[in-house]
Amino acid sequence: MIDKLKQVENFWDRNLCGKHFINAKFPSKDFFEQYRNFRYHKEHHLNSFNDYPSALNKDVLEIGIGIGADGTQWAKYAKSYTGIDITDEAIYATKLHFNILGLKGNFLKSNAESLPFHDNKFDIVYSHGVLHHILNIENALSEVYRVLRPKCKLILMLYSKDSFNYWIRIQLYFRFWFLLELLKKKFCFKIKEPWESHIKSYNIFGWSYFSWKNWHHHCTDGPDCQIANIYNKDEIIDMLNKADLVVEKIRKAHFPISCGLFPNLERLLAKYIGFYYFVWAVKA
Ligand SMILES: C[S@@+](CC[C@H](N)C(=O)[O-])C[C@H]1O[C@@H](n2cnc3c(N)ncnc32)[C@H](O)[C@@H]1O
Question: Pocket residues for ligand 1 (CB within 6 Å)?
Answer without folding.
Answer: 8, 12, 17-18, 63-64, 66, 84-87, 90, 111-112, 128-130, 133-134, 221
